[in-house]
């Protein structure tokens, strides 16, 4: 319990630091919100007036206090590009991206674990070489390159799936899945390659241990040894790496959603960055960092569930 | 240092050969190929498939892709190397101090590093690049800053481990100053880890540059980089897929070479972590 409280306290502190860093980085921007709203050719007096009314002449610390206060009370400001309140906008886009993250994680894990185990069981034989080389190639190509290949093959070539756009699952579930499939695959392939490498490495280590030799000596059949004895011990480390990849996934999602015109969180962040929509940049960068941090926390806690030997302290 | 041991595996040799080839291209291509060969436009041969005249085809402006990809190597490699060097220059002292001094300094520094790690590296790089204004120099700064927390974290762990070694303890008892201990005993012993991490970071930096340029927030024309070439190919994928495949293959080959060499290097320097991702 005290562990949980400790983690919660440290989480609040980290969230605070995340907000401070986000605010600091976006405030090095040349030009400010008033300039963004009125344009560079605007009347200096009107500009000064708008600055005053937006509170841009206040000390940075006061501005930060006002911003964080707004974030805490649900007033996240208004996007300069979309002319909409940011909080509902972000929430809606977050759901769209959630679908991608879920799909790509599922694709990656269901392929990577069997593949990694298979490679480890056949360590240093052709099966291992084949799986490891494929995985190595997978981590060496940019995600958007996979995306381009997938578009060429499945959208342009075979015409099976749409190459761009987003459909709300609430309106048309089948359409939503069809539109999410290619971007998820583009995100999932690179992830799968990483996780295959990790699973193989962890499993190779475990399969060389004493207790596996004992299990084999006892006459247990090989599949019990590999899956029940071996994999059970590999789940923790593999899960930790998968959790750490969520951060990587949220980086890639910006590129992939832009490529597929999939209007989720990554696409929104990209629009904000391109148009220097400062309030939207602040909110979306903060939200992404917070989500990444929270998912890492959840993975840490789950670790104790799958591996009872771990005592949280 | 057991760096040469990395060349004992096939993976290490192939990786090193690929990396050396790419480095040679990056350095020699600008000296041997006149710059205008990559910008010369052949309007009658726009989006031409590979042929004798243009072995790798041409792009939407009829520019020769072979020369563009050879000359683009310089930009991509330069950005990656400069960004990784920057992250080492900042991350090494941070990690060393944190791991060696410990206590409050360590707590404060690592809290900051952990917070920075919550920002996806690519998001951090994109934000910094958008804030500073995208160009070659700011791409380096953006990637360099985004990679620093990873490096600082790894160096801190190593410094912490080495600082507790009996030989460091012995040197301290012998009356050596902290400065001497750090520079003479701790630093040389964490270098293998730094070298491995730098090699792997280089691979990631090439991918990051490609990603940034692909989104228009990295290298800007007229500088030619591989990521920029892939971006330019987006609208012509149907008619001329080679415009994407050529720079994509260049990125893949370089990153593959770096990853293979990095793997072999790690196996040689740290047998415990053999084959880990």
Search tags:
A: mainly alpha; MetI-like fold; 77% helix; B: mainly alpha; 9 helices; 71% helix
The coarse silhouette of chain B is elongated
Number of E-type strands of chain B: 0
Number of helices of chain B: 9
Oligomeric state of shown chains: heterodimer
Write the layout of secondary structure elements.
The complex is a heterodimer of chains A (313) and B (277).
Chain A: H1 2-26, H2 33-38, H3 44-54, H4 60-72, H5 86-121, H6 126-140, H7 143-157, H8 173-207, H9 210-217, H10 222-259, H11 265-274, H12 278-306
Chain B: H1 10-32, H2 65-101, H3 103-118, H4 121-132, H5 136-163, H6 166-173, H7 178-214, H8 226-233, H9 242-269
Helix pairs in contact in B: 1-2, 1-9, 2-3, 2-5, 2-7, 2-9, 3-5, 4-5, 5-7, 6-7, 7-8, 7-9, 8-9
Explain what you see.
The complex is a heterodimer of chains A (313) and B (277). Helix content of chain A is 77%, strand content 0%. Chain A has 12 helices and no strands. In chain A, helix 5 runs antiparallel to helix 10 and helix 7 (143-157) crosses helix 10 (222-259). The longest helix of chain A has 38 residues, at 222-259. The mean pLDDT of chain A is 82. Helices cover 71% and strands 0% of the residues of chain B. The longest helix of chain B is centred in the N-terminal third of the chain and has 37 residues, at 65-101. The two termini of chain B are 22 Å apart. Classes of the chains: A mainly alpha (313), B mainly alpha (277). At the A-B interface, helix 1, helix 6, helix 7, helix 8 and helix 10 of A face helix 3, helix 4, helix 7, helix 8 and helix 9 of B.
């Amino acid at each position: 319990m005290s562990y949980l409280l400790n983690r919660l306290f440290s989480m609040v502190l980290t969230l605070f630091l995340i907000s401070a860093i986000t605010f600091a980085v976006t405030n090095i921007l040349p030009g400010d919100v008033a300039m963004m709203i009125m344009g560079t050719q605007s009347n200096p007096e009107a500009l000064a007036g708008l600055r005053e009314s937006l509170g841009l002449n206040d000390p940075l610390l006061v501005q930060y206090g006002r911003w964080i206060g707004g974030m805490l009370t649900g007033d996240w400001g208004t996007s300069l590009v979309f002319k909409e309140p940011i909080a509902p906008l972000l929430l809606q886009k977050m759901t769209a991206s959630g679908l991608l993250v879920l799909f790509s994680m599922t694709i990656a894990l269901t392929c990577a674990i069997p593949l990694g185990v298979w490679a480890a069981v056949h360590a240093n034989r052709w099966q291992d070489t084949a799986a490891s080389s494929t995985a190595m190639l997978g981590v060496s190509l940019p995600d958007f390159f996979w995306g381009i290949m997938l578009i060429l093959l499945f959208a342009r070539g075979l015409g099976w799936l749409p190459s761009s756009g987003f459909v709300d699952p609430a309106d048309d579930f089948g359409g939503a899945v069809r539109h999410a499939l290619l971007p998820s695959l583009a995100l999932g392939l690179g992830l799968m390659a990483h996780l295959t490498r990790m699973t193989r490495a962890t499993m190779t280590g475990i399969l060389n241990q004493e207790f596996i030799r004992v299990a084999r000596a006892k006459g247990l059949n090989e599949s019990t040894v590999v899956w029940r004895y071996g994999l059970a011990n590999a789940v923790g480390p593999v899960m930790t790496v998968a959790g750490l990849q969520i951060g990587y996934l949220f980086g890639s999602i910006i590129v992939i959603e832009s490529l597929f015109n999939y209007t989720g969180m990554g696409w929104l962040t990209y629009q904000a960055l391109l148009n220097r929509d400062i309030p939207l940049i602040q909110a979306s960068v903060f939200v992404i960092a917070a989500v990444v941090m929270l998912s890492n926390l959840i993975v840490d806690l789950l670790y104790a569930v799958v591996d009872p030997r771990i005592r949280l302290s | 240092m057991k760096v040469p041991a990395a060349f004992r595996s096939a993976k290490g040799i192939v990786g090193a050969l690929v990396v050396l080839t790419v480095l040679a291209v990056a350095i020699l291509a600008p000296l041997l190929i006149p710059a205008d060969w990559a910008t010369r436009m052949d309007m009658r041969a726009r989006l031409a498939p590979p042929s004798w005249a243009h072995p790798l085809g041409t792009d939407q402006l009829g520019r020769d892709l072979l020369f563009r990809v050879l000359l683009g190597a310089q930009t991509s490699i330069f950005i990656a190397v400069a960004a990784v060097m920057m992250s080492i220059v900042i991350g090494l002292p941070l990690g060393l101090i944190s791991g060696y001094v410990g206590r409050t300094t360590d707590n404060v520094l690592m809290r900051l590093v952990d917070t920075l790690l919550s920002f996806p590296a690519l998001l951090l790089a994109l934000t910094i690049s958008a804030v500073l204004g995208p160009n070659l120099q700011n791409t380096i700064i953006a990637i360099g800053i985004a990679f620093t927390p990873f490096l600082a974290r790894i160096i801190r762990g190593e410094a912490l481990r080495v600082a507790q070694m009996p030989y460091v303890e012995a040197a301290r008892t012998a009356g050596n100053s902290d400065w001497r201990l750090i520079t003479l005993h701790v630093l040389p012993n964490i270098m293998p880890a730094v070298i491995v991490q730098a090699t792997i970071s280089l691979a990631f930096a090439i991918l990051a540059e490609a990603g940034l340029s692909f989104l228009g927030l990295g290298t800007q024309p007229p500088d030619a980089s591989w990521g920029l070439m892939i971006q330019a190919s987006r609208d012509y994928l149907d008619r001329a897929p080679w415009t994407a495949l050529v720079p994509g293959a260049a990125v893949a080959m370089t990153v593959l070479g770096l990853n293979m060499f990095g793997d072999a290097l790690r196996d040689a320097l740290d047998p415990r972590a053999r084959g880990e991702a």
